[in-house]
Amino acid sequence: MKRVVVTGMGAITPIGLNTEEFWESLKAGKTGFSEITQFDTSDFKVKIAASVRGFEGRNYMDVKSAKRMELFCQYAVAAAKEALEQSGIQMDQEDPYRAGCAIGSGVGSLQAMEREHKRLLEKGPGRINPLLVPLMITNMAAGNVSIQFGLKGKSINVVTACATGTHSIGEAFRTIQVGDADVMVAGGTESAITPIGIGGFTALTALSSSNDVNRCSIPFDRERSGFVMGEGAGAVVLEELEHARKRGAAILAEVVGYGATSDAFHITSPAEDGMGAAMAMKQALADAKIAPEEVEYINAHGTSTHHNDLFETRAIKQAFGEHAYELKINSTKSMIGHLLGAAGAVEVIACILQMQHDYIHATVGLQESEEELDLNYMKNNGKDQKFKYALTNSLGFGGHNASLILKKFEEQES
Predict the structure, then answer these.
(1) pLDDT tens, 160-180?
(2) Does residue 202 carry a pLDDT above 60?
């Protein structure tokens, strides 16, 4: 198996429109929650989301291209652009059929569907936008990124709800490991803050019932009541190690482990004993060929829903035993909400940034947990700490579980 490294990162988030801004906000404990302005929420119970502010698609692509992309695709292209620029890859010097793309979206464009459904009802089927389908479907994030940057290798769209971003990076990692590509741009993207998006998740009782921006997304807190809808994108450039070395690339981290399982239990609830998620973590540990005790930090899925935070805690205890009590665990969603298909990708970037800066950020807003939630969730403050391995979890509706292990890069394998 070939070694796979990260040579570029790009992020569009509610707390920063690039990785530098995102990092500064993470360290400062800045949150991105505010009143929804995309539509009138007068009749909606939920009025808070984590929106991306100040984004202009034309800053990342030509105006004509931007007009032919819905927001989730624009976010993906913007994040991929930053990641590729940081990586230093020059596509005119690469074999384009050895450079691929694995960028997923859990939902695609609800905006396009809502807009054209309204047109259907008001003006009839003959007035539907001919581009509705390519504007709406989830694979167009990967398609547009491939087109924009000339990536002619494997182009895939993993759709596993909230595990999409992590699965996408995991599958890109495997693609390079087995020799099917030298370079993969991988990640996730989402923009679902729309009437049907907010209304649907509210009807499911998945969203936080709090309209207090300081107490809405509070993972592992006894008062948690659901997640806050976020939006954005995360993309990483994964590269085969020797390929990166030959071009003198700066290596940001190494991907060493990937685990993926299914709860096969319920369409929305995680398995109560946490075994599905625990097995994904165990698989990732086995893939990385490391003992549980070598992991010091976990970026939890940590959605702020009652079931997720409790059952994920059980899963961590199943996977790590007594070592679970030595782990530092945080939830980036405490600051950016839940980015659905983009969440895992942005959280991989958060892991790498923390690893680079020897710092573990706080789970913002966490005050008190109930009795069974007795691990170290980084309450109150972040901590300066060097660590060699980071594990990140994503758990999606349908029982999809994905775990990745990232490692500080070392020239020689230990």
Answers:
(1) 999 999 999 999 999 999 999
(2) yes
CB 83 within 8 A of CB 233: no
Spatial separation of the C-alpha atoms in residues 366 and 300, rounded to whole Å: 14
Buried b (16+ CB within 10 A) or exposed e, 65-86: bbeebbbbbbbbbbbbbbbbeb
Q: Pull the structure tokens for residue 129.
A: 């936008």
Q: What is d(CA 146, CA 153) in angstroms, rounded to the nearest whole number? A: 9
Q: Which two tokens stand for residue 186?
A: 């991988």
- Across the range 185-209, mean pLDDT stands at 97
C-alpha span between 204 and 269 (Å, rounded): 11
Residue 39 pLDDT: 98
**Cβ contacts of 305-309, under 8 Å, gap ≥ 24:** 305/206, 305/224, 305/226, 305/227, 306/224, 306/225, 307/269, 307/270, 308/270, 308/395, 309/219, 309/220, 309/224, 309/373
Token pair 């698989």: residue: 283
Kindly list the structural domains of the chain, giving each domain's residue range(s) and its CATH number in brackets, ordered by start. 4-246 (3.40.47.10), 257-407 (3.40.47.10)
Phi, psi dihedral angles at 162 (to 5 degrees): -75, -5
Contact 334, 228 (CB under 8 A): no
If DSSP codes are grouped into helix, strand and coil, which group holds residue 88? coil
Catalytic residues: 162, 301, 338
Is residue 412 predicted with pLDDT exceeding 80?
no
Q: Which two tokens stand for residue 293?
A: 């005790």
Are 23 and 357 spatial neighbours (Cβ–Cβ below 8 Å)? yes
Helix or strand run (H / E) with residue 254? strand 253-262
Query: Is residue 284 a contact partner of residue 328, using CB atoms and an 8 Å limit?
Result: no
Q: Which of 236, 101, 77, 104 is nearest to 162 (CA)?
A: 104
Query: Which residues are paired to 95 by β-bridges?
Result: none
φ and ψ at residue 400, rounded to 5 degrees: -80, 125
Residue found by looking up tokens 């070392």 in the block: 410
Tokens describing residue 78: 């913007």
Which residue do the tokens 């205890």 mark? 317
